[in-house]
């Protein structure tokens, strides 16, 4: 079934003639692109900006997903042309206006119960590998082929998930013959966070194994992802971390005075990402707060922007610390970045499952740029923990007593520095600047196109 639909997509493009590729043109395929991008999908817009700043013309084919509005601002950058294609069957175009923001003090709306296994299987079968296939994929492939005919890009660059981006890119390559780089922000095969039932995962893997071998090169965002890609494919694989952009924090880090403390009286911790019930677990923090004397516990506040199926609420009730836990509705990314600079501690929750040890949450690098101490819980193995511990970015532990002791230390630091814990040193952040990571992708592109590849900037020694 997959093969039939894949082959049928090319029937209208036989005999297509592509002009000589233009070395400075890139056709980017990614459903997640500002302003239609989920909270964690920062990389795609940042990469397009990086290329445009280098003088390249970037044509982006993305998805008009109304559910992803309200977090990122649209990019109005010279050199970037973005088209947002409908994802539904009828093809109705969504309004490209910012979504109204809910009350910041209200708890975010969410389903009250998780879907049952049968419903999950049916959902997976209807949308394989994701909801963007087949309607958005067909539109992206057709439009991409037309763009290739008109502008002669030098290559196709897909970024997923959603993995439908890779399907569309494979179709474009099959018709145009353009080289294709597949960037996997989460690996498609053996994704540790997959929600597929084992039966539908078989079909999902078969689809990936049919599509991805056509790629000329791959980009992975962690060492484990690179190893996974190298295991399954013969093409070159480049490691380029997500990194952070100094410009996101320049107004604060370059100022003489530090930002105003979010709450000078209470130690404020935030989890700025998404909580996946049963996978990302703040339980050790709640247990640590419960160990503190009542007077000290009253000085702790923990902010969350997501609570899937009331998971966080139930855990806080179990530990009798609900008075220290608050919920906020999702806000635009600019507000989150400013908040990360003002609060005291940034929380990372990771799964305990061994298969997720190599996953690096996208927020880690953003937190590094904010230069606030981190508290990481979950798996105590893998690149995330190594980066935090090796560079002095904070505490990685599941021991409630160790966390409680650290909370008391942070409270003392806060009191000794006029209500705000001092920023972490800047030097250890140098290796994680996004532009340095993206230069590795540039070198891969030059290598693939047969140009002399400039050497990426040498990573600076860390103090």
TrEMBL record:
It comes from Alterisphingorhabdus coralli. This is Glycosyltransferase. It is an enzyme of class 2 (transferase). Gene3D superfamilies: Glycogen Phosphorylase B. Residues 93-105 have a biased composition (Low complexity). Keywords: Glycosyltransferase, Transferase. Its EC number is 2.4.-.-. Residues 92-115 are annotated as: Disordered. GO terms for molecular function: glycosyltransferase activity.
């Amino acid at each position: 079934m997959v093969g039939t639909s894949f082959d049928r997509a090319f029937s209208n493009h036989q005999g297509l003639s592509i002009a000589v590729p233009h070395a400075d043109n890139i056709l980017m395929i990614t459903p997640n692109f500002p302003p239609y991008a989920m909270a964690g999908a920062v990389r795609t817009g940042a990469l397009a900006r990086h290329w445009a700043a280098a003088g390249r013309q970037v044509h982006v084919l993305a998805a008009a997903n109304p559910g992803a509005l309200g977090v990122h601002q649209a990019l109005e950058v010279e050199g970037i042309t973005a088209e947002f294609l409908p994802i539904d069957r009828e093809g109705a175009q969504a309004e490209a206006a910012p979504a109204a923001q809910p009350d910041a003090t209200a708890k975010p709306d969410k389903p009250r119960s998780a879907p049952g296994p049968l419903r999950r299987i049916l959902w997976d079968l209807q949308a394989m590998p994701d909801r963007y296939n087949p309607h958005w994929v067909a539109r992206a492939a057709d439009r991409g082929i037309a763009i290739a005919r008109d502008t002669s890009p030098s290559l196709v660059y897909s970024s997923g998930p959603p993995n439908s981006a890779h399907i569309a890119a494979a179709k474009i390559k099959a018709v145009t013959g353009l080289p294709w780089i597949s960037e996997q922000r989460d690996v498609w095969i053996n994704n540790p966070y997959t929600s597929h039932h084992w039966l539908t995962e078989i079909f999902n893997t078969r689809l990936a194994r049919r599509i991805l071998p056509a790629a000329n090169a791959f980009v992975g965002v962690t060492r484990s992802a690179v190893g996974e890609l190298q295991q399954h494919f013969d093409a070159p694989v480049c490691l380029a971390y997500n990194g952070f952009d100094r410009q996101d924090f320049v107004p604060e880090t370059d100022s003489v005075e530090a930002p105003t403390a979010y709450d000078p009286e209470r130690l404020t911790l935030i989890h700025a990402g998404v909580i996946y019930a049963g996978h990302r677990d703040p339980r050790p923090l709640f247990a640590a707060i419960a160990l503190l004397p009542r007077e000290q516990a009253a000085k702790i506040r923990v902010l969350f922007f997501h609570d899937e199926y009331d998971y966080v609420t139930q855990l806080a009730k179990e530990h009798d610390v609900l008075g220290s836990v608050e919920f906020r509705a999702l806000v635009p990314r600019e507000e989150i970045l400013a908040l990360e600079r003002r609060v005291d501690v940034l929380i990372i929750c990771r799964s305990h499952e061994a298969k997720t040890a190599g996953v690096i949450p996208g927020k880690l690098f953003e937190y590094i740029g904010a230069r606030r101490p981190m508290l990481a819980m979950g798996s105590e193995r893998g690149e995330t923990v190594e980066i935090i511990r090796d560079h002095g970015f904070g505490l990685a532990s599941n021991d409630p007593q160790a966390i409680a002791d650290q909370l008391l230390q942070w409270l003392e630091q806060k009191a000794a520095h006029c209500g705000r814990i001092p920023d972490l040193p800047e030097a250890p952040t140098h290796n994680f600047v996004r532009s340095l990571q993206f230069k590795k992708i540039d070198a891969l592109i030059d290598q693939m196109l047969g140009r002399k590849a400039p050497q990426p900037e040498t990573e600076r020694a860390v103090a």
